[in-house]
Amino acid sequence: xxxxxxxxxxxxxxxxxxxxxxxxxxxxxxxxxxxxxxxxxxxxxxxxxxxxxxxxxxxxxxxxxxxxxxxxxxxxxxxxxxxxxxxxxxxxxxxxxxxxxxxxxxxxx
Amino acid sequence: xxxxxxxxxxxxxxxxxxxxxxxxxxxxxxxxxxxxxxxxxxxxxxxxxxxxxxxxxxxxxxxxxxxxxxxxxxxxxxxxxxxxxxxxxxxxxxxxxxxxxxxxxxxxxxxxx
Lengths: 109, 113
Fold this sequence. Notes:
The structure holds two protein chains of two kinds. Chain A is mainly β. In chain A, 0% of the residues lie in helices and 54% in strands. Chain A has strands spanning 5-7, 10-14, 19-24, 31-37, 44-49, 55-58, 61-65, 71-76, 85-92, 97-99, 103-108. In chain A, strands 2, 4, 5, 9, 10 and 11 form a six-stranded mixed sheet that branches. Chain A has a five-stranded antiparallel sheet with strand order 1-3-8-7-6, with no helix packed on it. In chain A, 34% of the residues are buried. By secondary structure, chain B is mainly beta. Chain B contains no helices and eleven strands. The A-B interface holds A 1, 6, 30-31, 33, 35, 40-45, 48, 86, 88, 90, 92, 95-102, 104 and B 4, 33, 35, 40-45, 48, 55-56, 58-59, 91, 93, 98-99, 101-102, 104-107.
């Protein structure tokens, strides 16, 4: 079982601020996925990172996969209220996919 | 394209009763997952199917939980007897294969009184 630790657990910021959330593990993953979940809904995929050191940008969101493929970060620039949600990372191992506990982000207008 | 369908959306039962959840994945998706998500936590994998075979059920409490995926399409998750700590949202997801994007249903929210 691969343990994924996400930090911070909760984050409340004002609209326009920047933020970074982290996903760390002692295990190496073949790939890592980031999802966002809104209340009453299932998680929705934001991005998949595969190569160590890879950086992917999705509008105001920047995802980075660690060189050793054990950790990842998500940076949001100029956060908006629509970014509010639970951000989950999921590590893909040999035969399974496990989720972290998530970072619950609230962006206040 | 139709998404992952789950039912019922909500269920309230008393402890020691039984409950069953149903999932219809996206057509053609070979991999199906059941996750348990307790309030404030991330999804915890209960069982993973590849077609109608079990790939991983190491975190499924087999004394009370069971799941099947007959004919490699629909799946059911059963809890018998339910305990208070089983109160959670049960999420079904499907994908084209391991490591591919997971498509989730809206979940089945279980409350055990």
